[in-house]
Amino acid sequence: MSQLAYRRVLLKLSGEALMGDEDYGIDPKVLHRLAAEVVEAQEAGAQVALVIGGGNIFRGAGLAAGGMDRVTGDHMGMLATVINALAMQDALEKLGAKARVMSAIKINDVCEDYIRRRAIRHLEKGRITIFAAGVGSPFFTTDSGAALRAIEIGADLLLKATKVDGVYDKDPKKHADAVRFDSLGYDEIISRNLQVMDTAAFALSRDARLPMRIFDMDQPGVILRILKGENIGTLVQSGAAQ
Ligand code: UDP
What we know:
Helices cover 36% and strands 19% of the residues. The chain contains 8 helices and 11 strands. The strands form 2 sheets. Strands 4-3-5-2-1-6-10-11-9 form a 9-stranded mixed sheet, sandwiched between helices. A two-stranded antiparallel sheet has the order 7-8. The longest helix has 25 residues, at 70-94. It starts with 7 loop residues before the first strand and ends in a 5-residue tail after the last strand.
């Protein structure tokens, strides 16, 4: 049916990716553009799952820094990811796609509970499946949720969208001589403490031998180009030579 290099993928978007130039919340134009990228990939024949963070609304660590109980803050952060997931579901449906939100915390008046077998069934039926509320526990992030769900559903690739065009040996915004990696092993990314994702997410992906591509989302058609096998951004994999 399609000439794609990957059959099933999971795309991780940060909550901040939905903000555009706003300081908070969701910019509808940005949401629409991201949804269109996802639909383009799905229509090309890929099974696409999504995880969206909540940092555009609340993060537990930030709330705790302001004096709130950390676990309560994390619960609020997880609920923020449900809000973003519902917004994305709506944007996808407006584009004519089929979409389902599945949450790791029970909130089943507004979306489905996460059930692995049902999630896989949705994907097989061409429904873009959005996993909300991370792993469902405080002290985790949606990066870990993305790695966990990608492994559980047997994704061929985890796509980590960022604002930078890959992984550098140091911050390219601060150092003009920063060098970008084409590919990198998980052990190296962990030992160099390159904080593109949290260490738990890298460790989970390494142990499950799940490859990950880290790339700049701000390029039209980028998801589909990656799915067609283009070498965009940085590929991270278990035991990879540089
Ligand atoms: N969160 C959590 N457990 C999870 C996933 C998320 O407690 O499994 C909370 C945590 O407070 C986190 C917030 O939800 O800061 C939003 O998620 P994240 O920071 O990963 O969002 P992103 O940075 O990707 O926008």
